[in-house]
Amino acid sequence: MNIPTVSQVYVSMFSNYLEQLNIRRPDKQFRTIPLPTISSSNCDRLSISSVESLVTFIAGTTKNNSFGLDIGEHIHPSDYGIFGYAMMNCSTLSQAAELVVNYGSLLNQSLNVTLIEVGENIHFQLENSSADSASYILVELYLSSVVQMAIFLAGAQNCEHVRMSEVRFKHTALALPGKYQRVFKCPVRFGQNINEIVVTKNVLSQKIRSASPKMLLMLLKKMTRLVDEMNHNLSFSKKVTSFVEANINDHILPSAPIAAKHFNISMSTLKKYLHQENLNYTAICDAVRKNMAIKMLTCSCDQFQNISDYLGFSNSSAFHRAFKRWTGMTPAEYRRSSVSALNGSIPNHHPSII
């Protein structure tokens, strides 16, 4: 079974919370508290257990078991990265809620959202697959964020129309009742069968002031790709390979600095992640050239010079040498062997395509 993962946006939220806490409470030196180092399988996902350990550390350090409410109460869409920007470009709160259902796993795979229609109400239900008590703080962060985001998206002028009917938690209260009332502004119940927000259909029909269908479509395409990568558990090197393949420009493969910028990391971090997989950027580019050369030789009638130019070789001789190094054959020999294979005559030597 795959271990649930969590977006690194949570680490940014926690860091910002401690910084702001130092401003609000100058008697406490939270700014000097370093967050524990937590490991990740790639550059943008963390295991749920490592994040829950971080939550436990912060709760113990600040003596505040309900700091998830504090973060959620002051959340901004940008805090959730591309997910938040996509919500800002939805047409209505109802569409934004559907977005959470379809793409919420980008934030936290251990929390699953469903929408249940009961009469004139919609039940925004949050199922928590983690049994760790630290996950209660993440649940409160999630639901308080939902409420605050709804108010922000509808706009200050419509905030009176964005009222939840009731909020329910499976766990017992982590703070005094007044704090929950301040954050949710509606009845809050504990020890319930499920975590959920009950809201009327009228509230979800509220329009979002910053909606842009074109921008939303663009963001949804990127989010869909991110979900696919996450579900297929792509390694970082696979992501880099996909980026290189998709960004050959004017017969030139993208440079390592361009790739690092695309993944929003430094060159040293790019090298470190690839080194963890016993790879480097040059090797990836070489493999991309090899695979593209094989495909072009097998699936097209392009002249060798055209293939050489497309792949950015200085001349056809350099391409021939590289291809012989990759496959043990010249381009002409490989094309003839491919034709023979298609005609049912399998050659003795047919290299695998990686």
Secondary-structure topology with pairs:
Blueprint: E1 5-7, H1 9-24, E2 45-47, H2 48-62, H3 67-73, H4 82-88, H5 93-103, E3 111-118, E4 121-128, H6 134-154, E5 166-168, H7 177-184, E6 188-189, E7 195-200, H8 201-204, H9 213-231, H10 236-246, H11 256-262, H12 267-276, H13 281-299, H14 304-310, H15 316-327, H16 331-342
Parallel strand pairs: 5-6
Antiparallel strand pairs: 1-2, 3-4, 4-7, 5-7
Note the main attributes of this structure:
354 residues, alpha+beta, H-NOX domain, Arc Repressor Mutant, subunit A, 2 domains, two-stranded antiparallel sheet, 9% strand, disordered C terminus
Query: What is the ordering of alpha helices and beta strands?
Result: EHEHHHHEEHEHEEHHHHHHHHH
**Gross geometry:** elongated
- Integer tally of domains: 2
Q: Summarize the biggest pleated sheet.
A: 5 strands, mixed
CATH architecture of the largest domain: Alpha-Beta Complex
Give the termini distance in whole angstroms: 27 Å
Q: Give the class from helix and strand content and strand pairing.
A: alpha+beta
CATH topology of the largest domain: H-NOX domain
